[in-house]
Amino acid sequence: MKEEWFPLVNEEGETIGKATRRECHSGCKWLHPVVHLHIFNAAGDLYLQKRSMTKDIQPGKWDTAVGGHVDYGETVENALRREVREELGITDFKPEFLMRYVFESKIEKELVNTFRTVYEGPFFPDPEEIDEGRFWSRAEIASQLGKGVFTPNFENEYRKICMLGAQFK
């Protein structure tokens, strides 16, 4: 398998170096960029993916519709379009930038570039990445927060999106 290289960035997203995926996920806490896309339908429900049980991070948890790393030499916008195509088979969507923030876990530190779009389907989830996907209402999400159903990063980001008023219609 080909070695994956990620850009190392500062908090403004400017590239200051590069490192392998393994290095970025080794606990060294080198800041590297990722993209997230929240997909809403016209009713304001949010599409979530259930992470494959084979994933090394948060397997089997519900998460943002699309999330992935930016490759070294790739723009955030190109990474977003690539990840959406790879994970859900979607090529025709209009992303709207919401926010950028730093997320840190035990093994990594990410500069998360968050976008939203309105899209009704169809979806073609990659079975190697996603066990299932579906739209969730705000009430359904609220009833499951803090119960270990969602990834911690999704819960954190969902609360930020609600505070921004980046909605749900």
TrEMBL record:
Going by the UniProt record, its keywords in alphabetical order are:
Hydrolase
Give every Nudix hydrolase domain span: 30-164
Gene3D superfamilies, per this entry?
A: Nucleoside Triphosphate Pyrophosphohydrolase
What Pfam family is a match, any one? Answer: NUDIX
Keyword Hydrolase carried by entry: yes
Entry keyword Lyase: no
Give the superkingdom in one word.
Bacteria
Quote the PROSITE patterns the UniProt record gives: NUDIX, NUDIX_BOX
Stated name of the protein: NUDIX domain-containing protein
> Which organism does this sequence originate in?
Parabacteroides absconsus
Lineage, opening ranks: Bacteria, Pseudomonadati, Bacteroidota, Bacteroidia, Bacteroidales
